[in-house]
Amino acid sequence: ILHGIENSVRPISIAAVLSVIGYFVSMRFIPPVMQILFDRNIYGIDINKTTVETRQQFSKARKSGAEFSDTFKKLVVPESLGIVVGGIYLCAVLLALILAGVPLTKANGAVTTIAVMLLLGFVDDVLDVRWRYKLILSVFGAMPLIMGYEGALSVAVPIPLRDYIGSAFLYIGPLYLVYLVAVCVFCTNSINILAGVNGVEVGQSLVIGIASLVYNLVQLRHVDDQTTTEQHRVAIVLLLPFIGVSFALWKFNRYPSRVFVGDSYTYFAGTVLAVAGITAVYSKTLLLLFIPQIINFVISLPQLFHIIECPRHRVPRWIPERNVLTNSRNGTILNALLMVFGDMHERRLTNVVIVFQIVCSVLAFYIRYVLAGLVFER
Ligand code: UD1
Ligand code: MG
């Protein structure tokens, strides 16, 4: 039974070392690139620390092209640091795959998809791509991964339905590939819209990343065939450096943010998590790890479909007198949490989201390992 894990000690150790190196290289390069991005006018205003009036004055000053006053200089934060950690990540993963002796053909599609989505995110940060183009382009981004997909094309039928269907597995073929593309697109966009308070994008991604890593390690102990072992190994090699570079980014992005991560990071992070899940064939468990994002997506639907008015930024409202955030009546999980637990400080709100994400991970493991056994045999 330990066969899977024994053969994987070397690749996992190599990926772990590269994860640590990725962390330090990111720590080394984020500060200088922050300055460069700022000089290139790639920055954003920290919304939850400003009033509407300040933001209006700021955008006037920005349009006029005049030098910022010192007050404005304090409010702007370099944006899009995801491109730095994403670049470092790609180098780390390529090195890890080569050194660990994982055949590149097994990971080609995964790496290409991650690279394309990182590029799409960065282009979006710089050029502000419209929603519909982003969706179409992310479908193209998922293609390299899907074309190299080697998992099953069937879904397991729950035990009570087997008599009606007549078998334990139902072959759905190409439809399954469509589902996998949808998982990719969902993961990237759902992280991107659970955003807007300092540290929340990286925080949630780190929790899901670590939970995915644990899941793959647990599974490795159970599998005994070559193909599945290899799939979990690739997923682990993809996840470890992601966790390393994200920790570095977290240090700069947590409250009070010294950098913003940009869509380059949210797209990159969502894609790494989806790619790992699809490569190692655990998309259902992955979706369980995305419960907070699914909730946020569902309560966002009326605004996403413009049934209710959708402002450019759906963030809570800042009350300067008390320095807390309050429900702004936009349909997001952030506002829902403020409604349930009352007004709170920005740092606290991020922590609450992260704790909720951790609780959901535990729940996901419970559903996967205990409840799923009742409807599917393990
Ligand atoms: C998504 C959300 C949007 C949210 C934004 C925040 C939807 C449909 N879109 O848009 O509602 O406002 O993310 O990232 O739900 N910012 C902060 N504090 C932070 C993080 C970001 O003030 O902690 C602001 C900064 O001005 C930053 C900007 O958000 O420049 C980045 O927004 P961007 O990632 O471009 O927004 P979207 O992903 O399009
Ligand atoms: Mg974003």
TrEMBL record:
PANTHER family: UDP-N-ACETYLGLUCOSAMINE--DOLICHYL-PHOSPHATE N-ACETYLGLUCOSAMINEPHOSPHOTRANSFERASE (PTHR10571). One of its GO terms (molecular function) is UDP-N-acetylglucosamine-dolichyl-phosphate N-acetylglucosaminephosphotransferase activity. UDP-N-acetylglucosamine--dolichyl-phosphate N-acetylglucosaminephosphotransferase that operates in the biosynthetic pathway of dolichol-linked oligosaccharides, the glycan precursors employed in protein asparagine (N)-glycosylation. The assembly of dolichol-linked oligosaccharides begins on the cytosolic side of the endoplasmic reticulum membrane and finishes in its lumen. The sequential addition of sugars to dolichol pyrophosphate produces dolichol-linked oligosaccharides containing fourteen sugars, including two GlcNAcs, nine mannoses and three glucoses. CDD domains: GT_GPT_euk (cd06855). Its cofactor is Mg(2+). Its main location: endoplasmic reticulum. The keyword Transmembrane helix applies. Pfam families: Glycos_transf_4 (PF00953). GO terms for biological process: dolichol-linked oligosaccharide biosynthetic process. It is a multi-pass membrane protein. It is found in: Endoplasmic reticulum membrane. This is UDP-N-acetylglucosamine--dolichyl-phosphate N-acetylglucosaminephosphotransferase. It is an enzyme of class 2 (transferase). Pathway: Protein modification; protein glycosylation. Keywords: Endoplasmic reticulum, Glycosyltransferase, Magnesium, Membrane, Metal-binding, Transferase, Transmembrane, Transmembrane helix. It catalyses: a di-trans,poly-cis-dolichyl phosphate + UDP-N-acetyl-alpha-D-glucosamine = an N-acetyl-alpha-D-glucosaminyl-diphospho-di-trans,poly-cis-dolichol + UMP. The lineage of its organism: Eukaryota, Discoba, Euglenozoa, Kinetoplastea, Metakinetoplastina. One of its GO terms (cellular component) is endoplasmic reticulum membrane. The chain crosses the membrane at residues 12-30, 81-101, 135-159, 165-186, 193-214, 234-252, 264-282, 288-308, 349-371. Its EC number is 2.7.8.15. Belongs to the glycosyltransferase 4 family.
